Amino acid sequence: MRDIYNMHTFLTERKLNVGKVFKLLLRYYNEECRNCSTPGPDTKLYPFIYHAVESSAETTEQPGQKTGT
């Protein structure tokens, strides 16, 4: 239960809505699951989401730019 609570907290703090989470799930399926030759993908879902959201946040922030104003 702690994992799902941590994921919920992570997503709500970053204000990800249901549509964005759904797009992440589709991306996970297309990139990790669609052509899997094993019963499960090599990359687990939660690490995939954490990485995708964090890397997306890094690309949207500009160095030297003030945020929150």
From TrEMBL:
Highest taxon, organism lineage: Eukaryota
The protein, known as: Uncharacterized protein
